[in-house]
Amino acid sequence: MVDFLVDPPARGRLERARLRRLDRRLARMVRAAGLSDGGAAELEVTLRLTDDDTIRQLNRVYRRRDRPTDVLAFAQREGQGGGLHPHVLGDIVISVDTAARQARRGLERELLFLAAHGLCHLLGYDHRTDAEEADMNGRMAELLREAERRGPVRAA
Q: How many angstroms separate the CA atoms of 37 and 51, rounded?
């Protein structure tokens, strides 16, 4: 299940149809991840599209980096109490401003890529080493392929 939030400053950057498509594709990736995790419970993720000012504030408070970034992921499975609700993965926050600046193949595609990146972090992946980055990139590629595929959702 995906809760999809668009902050007022980010509204108007994407047409409603593109937002619905992004929501559907992310939901497909979340379901595919759930099937890979055994499929016992539907996983929950919140996606929030915002602007540079808001993500900069979040980045400053939670990562002590006083600058905007493209995506932040707040995993609920980590830390004390992380096992209480294992189906709740957490929150992904994306700056539409930053995504638009770095988009090479269109904003919608960049937002989906960043959502997959954030989802991988919620699933426990990281990219501190080359090996970790390779594992994470492989999982992202699987999730992105499943997001674009038609038909019943398959594990990814």
A: 32
